[in-house]
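Practice problem: predict the structure.
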Amino acid sequence: MILAGSLYTDRRRAQSGGLCVGLGRRGEQSNLFQGRALPNPANDNLRGSSVRFPVDPRLVPPQKAARRLHLTESDFCAKLSALQRIGFPAACPVTGHYDLQAIDAWLDRRAGLGAAVGVAVNARDVFEERLASLGKH
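Answer:
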């Protein structure tokens, strides 16, 4: 976005007889931008973006899932069956995309970080471990 008052708009103003001239959507010159920001070729949206905040997708295509594991897409596809044998989360059956949170949880479990969610624990074993750590067993 090029702001009014910049060197670019000063040159355009001089060429157009003092009006702040920009290019319209179809490439024609327009003086609609007086006192406002001028669109540049990379962003010629006159009304502004309808997206008010960025959205970080949770489900991502295989290319991005591969990048999360620091693999190329071809390496990821070649190693996918081996990854799934050791618990790598499956893709969504509808979209074919992978859940980034599930991938991160899988990586955390593999690295021994955090509590493993959904793993059944024998209460008696936990009790015995606590007693032993307190020196009462």
